[in-house]
Amino acid sequence: MEPNTGIAGEGRHAIADALAQVLADSYSLYQKTHLYHWNVQGPRFSALHQLFSDQYLELWNALDEMAERIRALGVFAPSHGQLAARTKIPTPNDISVSEDAMLKALLEGQEIVVRSARSALKLSAELGDDATADLMTQRCAAGEKAAWMLRAHLS
Hints:
This protein is mostly helical. The chain has a single domain, classed as Up-down Bundle (Ferritin), CATH 1.20.1260.10. The protein contains 5 helices and no strands. The longest helix is centred in the N-terminal third of the chain and has 31 residues, at 9-39. The N and C termini lie far apart (52 Å). The model has no long low-confidence stretch (mean pLDDT 95).
């Protein structure tokens, strides 16, 4: 049964597709951040272990909100394989990298997510989907704050 909430079917599907990109990038970044949380080592271990924990937990909670928004638009949330195929987040092959390399990779990932969220925000605003626009505004703010925190550790 198609939703009848004031957004045409084509628009709902376009918004859901943009959201699926943000979800894919966020899910991949969640996994990378958690992996680095487990494997960080060096003189800043304690601080980075906690920072990475804070960031992967924030991402984890956001994943559910985005997938549920896709469902509210009348579209199925993407499968794990679909998420993995469309993410723009580079997948690490070597987990024994330096603290700075981890920070730089996560910073790059956060900025990718923000750009994806900003694109979905623009589309949803153009199509009159205030609920998705609000969610993407929150994702932009969270990603920008996370990027700032990562940058602060690199200065």
